[in-house]
Design goal:
By secondary structure, the chain is mainly alpha-helical. It contains 13 helices and four strands.
Length: about 300
């Protein structure tokens, strides 16, 4: 792998890192299978693109995208908690609705940001580095700040209630905590991170598209599982860091696979879903094989 390809993989890994952390919060912490992310990622991209085109700063556009993502996630939480719709179905309904909403926001299937000032351009100018070097650094810093803020939050009283809701809902309800509010806030927070990731991706790629969220949940779960397998998840702090690093490892693995050539055979972008499935299978099977090997040595 060339240095340029490695930096590109790091860039993608950190750009989607916020999305992976959001997926971790719903699937692992809240035990809430949320498919809203396939719609909230392009929602963040579309809101960001429209905001920048309308004359807002690129940083303001990211915050606007984050707020829109929170609202989308909160809708899923409300459908589940207040209207008693199964969490999986509630998230699918929101995801479907977001496709039309994203089209309404942009007024077209896609929107370009060519010629517009983005956060990527701003940081490249401030740092004095070329874009392919400065962008991974910028996205990495954003992810580090987000992880640090989440670690702090999850050690607060509200954060502990958040953790307890996913771990034992009946117990925390008996302590007088309104778990419905926690779920709505938690799913909203998750999708806020996903939408922020979509805003970063759109500003990095220079375009937003209503179909850019397809397969987001699969990539997010693959990254979470890879991170947990390689780095472990014994503590919440370690698990969050593992999820972020899992996103990077996933993108590096994809880059390596795309550069792999065996004679006349080569892997193309159309094979990415197959590669993702294989990576998840390997990540799930490795712990089982490790336990069997440890048990065999103990005999």
């Amino acid at each position: 792998m060339t240095t340029y390809a490695l930096l590109g993989a790091l860039e993608q890994g950190f750009a989607y890192g916020l999305m992976v952390i959001g997926v971790y919060l719903t699937f692992r912490v809240l035990d809430f299978p949320d498919l809203t992310v396939d719609g909230s990622l392009p929602l963040g991209a579309s809101v960001s693109a429209v905001a920048i085109t309308a004359g807002h700063s690129s940083v303001t556009a990211i915050f606007m995208a984050t707020a829109a993502g929170f609202v989308a996630g909160a809708v899923t939480g409300i459908l589940n908690t207040k209207f008693k719709i199964l969490h999986l179905l509630a998230s699918i309904l929101t995801m479907i609705a977001l496709y039309s909403i994203n089209l309404r926001i942009m007024g077209r299937p896609n929107m370009t940001l060519l010629g517009q000032d983005t956060v990527v351009d701003w940081f490249a100018g401030v740092s004095g580095l070329v874009a392919y070097v400065s962008t991974p650094i910028l996205f990495g810093l954003i992810c580090v700040v987000a992880v640090a803020a989440l670690i702090w939050f999850l050690h607060t009283e509200l954060g502990l209630a958040f953790l307890a809701t996913g771990d034992n809902k009946q117990m925390i309800t008996s302590q007088g905590v309104n778990t419905d509010s926690i779920v709505i806030f938690g799913v909203g927070l998750s999708n806020a991170l996903v939408a922020a990731s979509g805003a970063l991706v759109a500003q990095n790629q220079g375009a937003a598209d209503v179909n850019m969220g397809v397969g987001t949940i699969i990539a997010g779960l693959a990254s979470v599982i890879i991170g947990e397998t390689v780095f472990g998840d014994k503590t919440i702090s370690r698990a969050l860091i593992a999820a972020l690093l899992g996103s990077v490892l996933y993108r590096v693995a994809i880059a390596l696979a795309l550069g792999l050539k065996l004679g006349s055979f080569s892997i193309t972008p159309s094979d990415l879903n197959l590669i993702t499935a294989l990576l998840v299978v390997v990540a799930l099977v490795m712990p089982q094989m490790k336990r069997k090997m440890m048990a065999g040595r103990a005999k």
